[in-house]
Amino acid sequence: MSEKELKEVSVIDLFNAHSETLEDAQKKNASESSGRRLEMFRMDKEGKYKVRILPLAPIPNDNGEYELPRKGYEYPAKELLLKIQTGTTKDGKPQITYVNVRHLKNIFPALEGADLIDLFVQIACEKYSDDEKLCKAIRDNSFSGGLRYDTKRYMYVLNMDKREDGIRMLALSYAQYKELEERKLDLWKELREDDPKAFCPISSVENAYPVEITRKKENGKTSYVFNINTRREAPLSEEELQKLLDLPRLPEQLYRYTRYHLEATLYFLKQYEEKKDIDVLSDERITDLVEKIKILLPSDDTSHFNPNNSKGSSEDGATGSKMTFDQLYDTYDAIVNAGQDDKSEDGLNLRTAMMEFISDNDLDVSVSRRMTNADILDEIEDALKNNAENGKKPAPASENDSEEDDERESADPDDVDPEEAEPSDPSDDTAEPAARTDRRANRPARRRR
Question: d(Cα 53, Cα 374) in Å, to the nearest integer?
Answer without folding.
Answer: 26
